[in-house]
């Protein structure tokens, strides 16, 4: 076995399969794109679903990747087990209907044992197979595996319910009894058993059956290979560490944490070791998640991120770290992963900023959790109970991020135990809910569809042409069948060449017409999408018979295309301007390009200020007025990156990519249509900006005629306002409104002074009418022409002069509303009267409600006729005391 670093192992795996004709897929974003069934990318095969389902046919059916992934369904086990991580990398090779068992098995054995590659000792490797998969067993023997190193296991069948399934084969490495946690004669001491001696390092799934709804299995039309090998586990074997956490992927993070701790050291204490491991694991996970655009929140993946940060913070406290610290580990993570993920170090300042803000915020939450825990402990003691309930412990865990052990420690300090069984029950309920959700949404469909095997060529010529005079109709789909002709209704068509753009990257598809050789309209194109093999598939409304093999004239609606292209160019200008104004951390999170407007979603922590929006508009309009030329070229991906082209969404690209340049200002990988010059946009105007989720904001904007119409409409509204306020010119509207506001404030002040004067004049009479009920003195009276401010002023006067135990005043406002106020003196409170209770008792009479402190409370209602009854109710309230 060679001595290798984690970076060397990753690269060696990819190099091996590249030699075997595989295309190396870059590690995709942790945030799934166009896949609502997943919260996170949780495996290498998750990024291949579109290929295995048949929605897209890959250019190369042989694929390999090292895919970063997140799984949090067993987060509470992180740090306690040797190899459980939230973030991990999955090495995998995949075949989409190409090679099968023979190649997959031979290559796996070659990679693991060949001196050129990993050079594992064959004597240390064991293989498990499905008992009925005799072919796999034979192929392993032919590859060189000794018969006594091949074990049959009924569990070696990959099946997630309906969909692709099949037998699988696992490779185990024997680390020797010195690494084991069970005795040599333990029944679990075998490859595949529950032990630490034999580590599973690779799983190869032979996907060859379709698990049908009726429970039967039928052969798949295309057999696939899906493999997975955890990089962290493989590194632990190569570097001969007891757990994954002593490898070069984690140990530098642990060592950095030691320096931040209160003289705590890894390897000295089991409990503190758990904390070191949790912090190292979570530091990696949150760093990568934020780099890919996730932000802490209370829902979805944002909640997962928040929980990871909080869990790490709590474990930091266990190590004596009382200040924010997790953000300081971001550069350490970035340095470890720099060879394959250079974006971490590039974004380290932004990632650290997000983490630190969340750590600061959690300090308050953590204190609230501790207060609640103290309250629960006191309540348990008062009730002579010596156990905290499972629901209480789970609430602290789920809401405040308190690990079970932390609550247990605090309870023990107070002489209490915790209901672990009840906690486990609540935890199990949550897992069942999560599994139910995953079973409903997760899973991989079967390869299907009429177009999966359609290989007819179809060329897009729409970059330069909006019309194709002679386009051959190669394929017709109608009523879910391939047909030779269609006479009416809706159909899907593929032509040998087409100027119609297929929807992609947020840009909507072209609309237009299909004409026959006599220039008669035979169909309207309403949508264009990509077929599995990449052809442009036209959805049409058939107006006259269409026949396969015939030639037709295709005409794109030029106005529609022009308006869409202008708005697409505007999104590129906006994308770059956002980075200029807000920072390089901004990532596109989605877009929609329509002919009449554009929508652009982007990641950004915090609100966008009006000044920043004005700055964005200014920058973009300056680029429009500069009449920058818009050009595009086809080049290889490395050359494109050297040019500084930005890859939106971290999409996977082929060897050749299209790069669109807007002067020297913007350069992006792009497959959409654009204006030829920024001057064609005429004008750019933001119409709306808002937050649409945690850390994601949306800008809507218009260009050209739509921007002119937008501004013209607002000018008309402004003119109407000018007419109403009698401003002589539009330029005088602001000063005129300011003048009117000043006059209004002065009028309000005069009214308030008059009301106060009137209320004071009434006070002499009101305060003289004192009732005595059950030895409690009460003043209850209506006040005319007052508002709540005047009522409070009267209450203050009453309080200063100590005129009675209780005061209740009410006033009618505008004939439609009622305001009530109740006040109770110190003597009244001593007699058991509370203003809050009193106001609640009388507010119902005026059709409202209210509340307040024992000495002062107020209420409002919508029934002025009930005011006398409300005042009378105050007397009844005191009479019943």
Automatic annotation (TrEMBL):
A biological process term (GO) from this entry: alanyl-tRNA aminoacylation
GO molecular function: alanine-tRNA ligase activity; aminoacyl-tRNA deacylase activity; ATP binding; catalytic activity, acting on a protein; transferase activity; tRNA binding
Localization, UniProt: Cytoplasm
InterPro entries linked: aa-tRNA-synth_II/BPL/LPL, Ala-tRNA-lgiase_IIc, Ala-tRNA-ligase_IIc_anticod-bd, Ala-tRNA-synth_IIc_core, Ala-tRNA-synth_IIc_N, Ala-tRNA_ligase, Ala_tRNA_ligase_euk/bac, DHHA1_dom
CDD domains for the chain: AlaRS_core
Entry GO terms, CC: cytosol
Keywords annotated in UniProt: Aminoacyl-tRNA synthetase, ATP-binding, Coiled coil, Cytoplasm, Ligase, Nucleotide-binding, Protein biosynthesis, RNA-binding, tRNA-binding
EC number(s) on file: 6.1.1.7
UniProt cross-references to PROSITE patterns, sorted A to Z: AA_TRNA_LIGASE_II_ALA
Coiled-coil residue windows: 730-764
Pfam families: DHHA1 (PF02272), tRNA-synt_2c (PF01411), tRNA_SAD (PF07973)
Span of domain Alanyl-transfer RNA synthetases family profile: 4-713
Catalytic reaction annotation: tRNA(Ala) + L-alanine + ATP = L-alanyl-tRNA(Ala) + AMP + diphosphate
Similarity field: Belongs to the class-II aminoacyl-tRNA synthetase family.
PANTHER family registered for this protein in UniProt: ALANINE--TRNA LIGASE, CYTOPLASMIC, ALANYL-TRNA SYNTHETASE
Domain remarks: Consists of three domains; the N-terminal catalytic domain, the editing domain and the C-terminal C-Ala domain. The editing domain removes incorrectly charged amino acids, while the C-Ala domain, along with tRNA(Ala), serves as a bridge to cooperatively bring together the editing and aminoacylation centers thus stimulating deacylation of misacylated tRNAs.
Function, as annotated: Catalyzes the attachment of alanine to tRNA(Ala) in a two-step reaction: alanine is first activated by ATP to form Ala-AMP and then transferred to the acceptor end of tRNA(Ala). Also edits incorrectly charged Ser-tRNA(Ala) and Gly-tRNA(Ala) via its editing domain.
Protein name: Alanine--tRNA ligase
Protein's organism: Loigolactobacillus rennini DSM 20253
């Amino acid at each position: 076995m060679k001595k290798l670093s984690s970076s060397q192992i990753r690269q060696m795996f990819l190099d091996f399969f590249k030699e075997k004709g595989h295309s190396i897929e870059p590690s995709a974003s942790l945030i799934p794109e166009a896949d609502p069934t997943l919260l996170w990318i949780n495996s290498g095969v998750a990024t291949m679903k579109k290929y295995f389902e048949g929605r897209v046919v890959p250019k190369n059916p042989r694929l390999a990747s090292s895919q970063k992934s997140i799984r949090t369904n067993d987060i509470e086990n992180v740090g306690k087990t040797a190899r459980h991580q939230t973030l991990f990398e999955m090495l995998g090779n995949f075949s989409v209907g190409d090679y099968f068992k023979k190649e997959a098995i031979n290559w796996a054995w070659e990679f693991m044992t060949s001196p050129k590659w990993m050079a594992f000792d064959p004597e240390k490797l064991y293989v498990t197979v499905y008992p009925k998969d005799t072919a796999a067993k034979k192929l392993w023997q032919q590859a060189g595996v000794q018969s006594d190193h091949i074990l049959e296991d009924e569990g070696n069948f990959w099946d997630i319910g309906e969909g692709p399934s099949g037998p699988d084969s696992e490779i185990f490495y024997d680390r020797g009894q010195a690494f084991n946690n069970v005795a040599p004669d333990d029944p679990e001491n075998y490859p595949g058993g529950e032990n630490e001696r034999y580590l599973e390092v690779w799983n190869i799934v032979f996907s060859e059956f379709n698990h049908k709804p009726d429970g039967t299995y039928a052969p798949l039309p295309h057999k696939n290979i899906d493999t997975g090998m955890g990089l962290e586990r493989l590194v632990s074997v190569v570097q001969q560490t007891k757990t994954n956490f002593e490898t070069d992927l984690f140990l530098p993070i642990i060592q950095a944490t030691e320096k931040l701790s209160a003289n705590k050291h890894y390897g000295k204490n089991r409990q503190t070791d758990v904390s070191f491991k949790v912090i190292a694991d979570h530091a990696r996970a949150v760093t990568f998640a934020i780099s890919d655009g996730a932000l802490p929140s209370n829902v979805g993946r944002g909640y997962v991120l928040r929980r990871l940060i909080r869990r790490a913070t709590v474990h930091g406290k266990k190590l004596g770290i009382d200040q924010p610290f997790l953000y300081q580990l971001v550069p350490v993570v970035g340095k470890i992963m720099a060879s394959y993920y250079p974006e971490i170090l590039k974004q380290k300042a932004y990632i650290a900023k997000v983490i630190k803000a969340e750590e600061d915020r959690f300090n308050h939450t953590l204190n609230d959790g501790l207060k609640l825990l103290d309250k629960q402990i006191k309540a348990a003691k008062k009730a002579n109970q010596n156990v905290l309930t499972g629901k209480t412990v789970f609430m602290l865990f789920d809401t405040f991020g308190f690990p079970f052990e932390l609550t247990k420690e605090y309870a023990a300090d107070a002489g209490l135990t915790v209901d672990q069984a009840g906690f486990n029950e609540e935890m199990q309920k949550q897992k069942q809910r999560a599994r139910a959700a995953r079973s409903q949404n997760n899973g991989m469909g079967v390869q299907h569809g009429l177009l999966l095997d359609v290989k007819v060529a179809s060329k897009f010529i729409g970059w330069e042409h909006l019309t194709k005079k002679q386009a051959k109709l190669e394929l017709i789909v109608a009523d879910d069948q391939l047909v030779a002709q269609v006479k009416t209704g809706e159909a899907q068509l593929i032509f040998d060449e087409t100027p119609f753009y297929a929807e992609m990257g947020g840009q909507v598809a072209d609309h237009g017409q299909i004409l026959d050789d006599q220039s008669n309209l035979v169909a309207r194109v309403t949508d264009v999408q990509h077929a599995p093999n990449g052809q442009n598939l036209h959805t049409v409304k058939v107006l006259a018979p269409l026949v396969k093999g015939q030639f037709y004239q295709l005409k794109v609606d030029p106005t529609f295309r022009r308006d869409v292209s202008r708005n697409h160019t505007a999104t590129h200008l906006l994308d770059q301007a956002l980075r200029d104004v807000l920072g390089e951390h901004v990532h596109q999170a989605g877009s929609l390009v329509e002919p009449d407007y554009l929508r652009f979603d982007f990641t950004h922590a915090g609100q966008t200020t009006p000044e920043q929006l004005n700055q964005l508009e200014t920058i973009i309009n300056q680029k429009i007025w500069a009449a920058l030329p818009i050009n595009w070229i086809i080049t290889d991906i490395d050359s494109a990156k050297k040019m500084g082209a930005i890859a939106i969404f971290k999409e996977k690209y082929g060897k050749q990519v299209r790069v669109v340049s807007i002067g020297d200002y913007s350069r992006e990988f792009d497959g959409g249509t654009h204006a030829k010059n920024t001057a064609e946009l005429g004008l750019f105007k933001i119409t709306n900006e808002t937050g649409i989720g945690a850390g994601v904001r949306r800008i809507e904007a218009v260009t050209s005629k739509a921007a002119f119409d937008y501004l013209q409409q607002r000018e008309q509204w402004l003119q109407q306002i000018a007419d109403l306020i009698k401003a002589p010119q539009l330029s005088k509207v602001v000063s005129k409104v300011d003048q009117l506001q000043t006059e209004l404030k002065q009028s309000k002040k005069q009214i308030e002074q008059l009301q106060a004067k009137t209320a004071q004049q009434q006070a002499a009479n009101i305060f003289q009418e004192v009732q005595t009920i059950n030895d409690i003195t009460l003043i209850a009276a209506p006040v005319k022409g007052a508002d709540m401010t005047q009522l409070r002023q009267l209450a203050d006067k009453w309080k200063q002069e100590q005129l009675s135990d209780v005061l209740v005043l009410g006033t009618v406002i505008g004939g439609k509303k009622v305001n009530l106020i109740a006040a109770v003196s110190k003597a009244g409170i001593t007699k058991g009267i509370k203003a809050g209770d009193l106001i609640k008792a009388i507010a119902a009479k005026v059709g409202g409600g209210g509340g307040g402190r024992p000495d002062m409370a107020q209420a409002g209602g919508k029934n002025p006729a009930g005011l006398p009854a409300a005042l009378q109710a105050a007397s009844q309230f005191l009479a019943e005391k």
